[in-house]
Amino acid sequence: MGIRARLYDAKGDDRDVRLSADVVRGLTDDTLLWVDVAQPDTTELGELARAFDFPPPILAALKAPGDQARLVRAPDAILMTILAVEPRDGGEEPIPVDLVASRNALVTVHAAEVEALTAFEAEISDEAALGKLDAAAFLGALVDTALVSFNRQIEEIEREIDRLDEVALSGDDPAGFLRRVVALRRRTGALRRILVPQRETFGPLSRPDFELHDELGRPWPGLVERLERAIEGVERARQLLLGSSDVYIARSAQRSGDVMRALTVVSAVLLPAVVLAGIMGMNFDLAFFDDPSNFWLVLAAMPALAVLILAVTRFRGWI
Predict the structure, then answer these.
(1) Are 110 and 96 in contact (CB under 8 A)?
(2) How do residues 205-239 score in pLDDT, each as one tens digit?
(3) So where are the chain's domains?
(4) Per-position DSSP letters for 219-250, written without gaps between them
(5) Measured between alpha carbons, how far is 88 from 110 in angstroms, rounded to an integer?
(6) CATH of domain 3-251
(7) Strand 77-88 versus strand 31-38 pairing type
(8) What number of other Cβ atoms are within 10 A of residue 181's Cβ?
(9) What is the pTM of this model?
């Protein structure tokens, strides 16, 4: 989709420029160049190489994009690949983004549109004196915006879990509840698989040996902590999801218990009548069976015993 180059000037003269080696050589400590390349082809990668004269390890990494987080360090530049998250068809799709920091310049290369980059550009559109930022600080701000997008996904999952809790308490629609639980578990699992491997990429940013690249500046030290918080948010969402499942299981058990209790009470109420009917149906030669008036006595005893049983169960608090 082409190369877009934006020059930020500390004097407030921010503007789009045409990428060239002359523009790169003309960068000063009061200017910062952001070059964004979406869906690059061989021609555009060659244009980047001619403009920046990247070291061979950086060029090789750009020409061989991967789907995993990575960190490539060279004397004059650093390539950092992060995984941004984009919602796709109810799930999360990882989008690798290559960020190359060189002196007073940052290059972002990605194979698909990334919402975090668009959000970052909107955030800094009214900022003045951005040209005074070094490449590492600019990189840190962009990565932080990408991590914020993870937090939004986590918050959306937590809101869905809150709605699940209401379903769990009602105990209705068991098939729908389980289907939503499985979908949310897949989403949290996908986010965790995207975030956790990036620890290896973020970790070196806070190590002392990163100071060897003073010409690039220092990224914001809170990036590692922000990544850990995002991972903790995913783990918290997983725990909340398990809690919703526990609530649903407990509610289902309670409903089953209520049904069994009702059936038990009904059985207990009808049991005396069944016993009396069975006894009266026996063919014994007793005077009691020869008196027709005893039929009404037995008939009256049946509801009387049922009422007695109901009174006892109510008194004991069983119903």
Answers:
(1) yes
(2) 766 655 545 556 666 667 888 888 889 999 998 88
(3) 3-251, 257-315
(4) --TTHHHHHHHHHHHHHHHHHHHHHHHHHHHH
(5) 17
(6) 3.30.460.20
(7) unpaired
(8) 19
(9) 0.71
